[in-house]
Amino acid sequence: MQTGTTRESLVRRTEDGERRWFFGGGLHIWKATAEETDGAFLLFEDRMDHGKVTPLHIHPDSDETMIVLEGEIRMHLDGVEHTIGAGGVVSAPRGVPHAFMVSGVDGARLLCLHTPGCCQAFYWDASEPVAADDGRGIEAGPVDIRRVQASAQKNGGIEIVGPPPFEHAARS
To answer: For the whole model, what pTM was predicted?
Structure first.
């Protein structure tokens, strides 16, 4: 049966996908790029240690959905704080202010989906490649918030609108 799409099917196993250290903290494993989905979405796994926190931000041109695979996060979404554990989902529509903090004692693993995939240039410039077998922990990569901010200015896809909104943020 013809589906009308010209893009190729995509299959990635658990550990498949390009690995990149995100300068905001954590390891991204890219599961589906904007190029591979004809711009429909960007999907990556995010592996983070306890205490990783993001500033309050918006994505002006994409919706962001997170599916927590392991651990727990606290999500500040449009002024309200929620706790999301393994199996939970949270979705921030474009333009809605949000931030999260990893509250799980053993960190968190989540899938991050951006629709459409217009945030990809931001994440690309705000990260660097890492070998799949380098043996370092998920927080062993460089944390450089200035590079995250520079990528946001250069590439768009995200606007930082304030500091982390959590009363007891482990780090900023």
So the answer is: 0.88
Q: What's phi and psi for 149, nearest 5 deg?
A: -65, -40
Q: ∠ CA 105-22-125 to the nearest 5 degrees? A: 165
Secondary-structure class of domain 26-162 per CATH: mainly beta
Intervals of the chain under pLDDT 70: 1-5, 131-140, 168-172
pLDDT in tens, 49-71: 999 999 999 999 999 999 999 99
Tell me the C-alpha distance between 52 and 169, whole Å: 9
Instruction: Tell me how far apart the alpha carbons of residues 32 and 9 are, in angstroms, rounded to a whole number.
Output: 11
What's the residue count for the chain? 172
- Residue-range domain boundaries for the chain: 26-162
**Chain centre to alpha carbon of residue 149:** 15
The answer to whether the CB of 57 falls within 8 A of the CB of 64 is no
For 29, the token pair is 């494993």
Q: 104, 93, 91: which is closest to 52 by C-alpha?
A: 104
Burial label for 28, CB within 10 Å (0-12, 13-18, 19+), is: buried
